[in-house]
Write a structure and sequence with these properties.
Blueprint lengths: L1 E3 L2 E3 L4 H9 L3 H9 L12 H7 L4 H14 L3
Antiparallel strand pairs: 1-2
Helix pairs in contact: 2-4
Length: 74
Amino acid sequence: MNSAGGRQFQGLTPRELRTLRGLKTPAGIQRFLDELPYNLSFTARSPQKVLRDRTASCLEGGIFAAAALRIIGF
């Protein structure tokens, strides 16, 4: 398990945590998502899979944004 700000984030590598922390603001998270290709498949990727696959649907983007906001302290 990895710790960030006293919280535990299971399954994320140190590199993935650095990427998420690097987004810094809600606008940074949105910018990151805007740059990803849209996922047209009927999937529900985890935030970790969004980072690895570099694609997201609306649902996946929303879940990713919620996780990223938590990691950066919102």
